[in-house]
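Submission sheet (multi-component)
Chains listed below:
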Amino acid sequence: MSGTTLFGLGAAALVGLGLYGLICQPGALRKILAFNLMGSGIFLLFGVIAKRGGGALFAAGTGSDGDPVPQALVITGLVVAFAATAIAVALLVRLAETGGGTTLETDAQDAPAVPTDANLRGEREP
Amino acid sequence: MSVGLISDVVLILLVLSLAVWITIARTAYRAVVGFVAYGLLMTLLWVRLAALDVAMTEAALGSGLTGILLFAAAARLAPFEAAERARAPAPALRLLIGLLCTLVAAGLAAVVLWLPEPAPTLAPLVAEHLPPTGLRNPVTGVLLAHRAIDTLLESMVLLPALIGVWSVAADADWSGRPGSLPRPPASDALTLLARILPPFGVLVAIHLVWIGADEPGGKFQAAAVLAAMWVLVMMAGLQQPPAVVSRGWRGLLVVGASLFIAIGIAGIWLADAFLAYPKGLAKPLIIAIEVALTGSVAVALALLLSGPPTRAHRCEAGR
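Outcome: structure written.
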């Protein structure tokens, strides 16, 4: 088995792990982390396919011997994933600040209240 | 078993064990620590896959900037974690979910094992069409010539994302400055680092844009490095994040995409297609777009990290 196939199998395992975390973790921040893990597994699959499709075409001069199209897509994907994570985190922090809790429970009565010692703004203690 | 294969086995096992750690760690903070380490190991994995451009983006963006974002959020949300833990699904349900996720992973693994031979590839097509652009880095060629529309949309997607982040601010806070960056207690070491590192970071970024045409590198990597330098300066308290109502900063945000669109539209007359470059001018135009986009993307990334505006007095109180 080549290293590339091995990475492909690892990527499949990463997607499975990320999916498990996304469903099982009750906290929304943990879900965001798990979603990033899943995305990273999918990017890795792209990388494996890029490596397989490469050959020695670009070996001279560029230091790269993968198919550049999936590689370019992964770079695009990494930037978009960062932007999506930033939005998700901003929404989550705001939800917590306004007393909506940090889980996806729809029952407002059931949602955990803001703890009195919550230091939501990240301020330094005097 | 060759040395290369052994190192691949060790790498993937490390990555997978960190992924397990991220999934089951007790607190979000521990999971984020694992995530940053995971990102750095992924960088090595990308190098092993001969994708140096991706490796640099992963190191700067996937591990570095995402790490800061998640650390800040984990610190703020820590008081809620006890309540969250009480809501974890029952063990039997977790087992069932685990089985189904294993099934998904096994399906993907089967796809990997039965990928078609010979592998389908666009590499010969890119190699054939690269010389007219005057570029030597095929990834930059794909990003800015062959699939320029993807790159254009992507550099614009950062703007709605930023608008989304800003729009969660309360009305009263709108004129304030972004306040989501962690503010560690002032220390001499941090201040020194924030004064010494940025000049080198700026040099590295300029180098990355400049060589991006021919060698691994390019605007996204450079933008992530620039954004990281600026964020370091803001976290050390040497500079305040800019107010979101500032028109100058907003102009900087859109200048890259605007230039890209302008050159793209000019292509309709000069080269017979939207986003096509006139013969002989491809490389200078691509470098101009890269430079403008680097600035805009760097500002967008740093502002995404800085979060929504908060009340002005809070910013002052935090200093």
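Remark: Residues 52-77 of chain B form the longest helix (26 residues).
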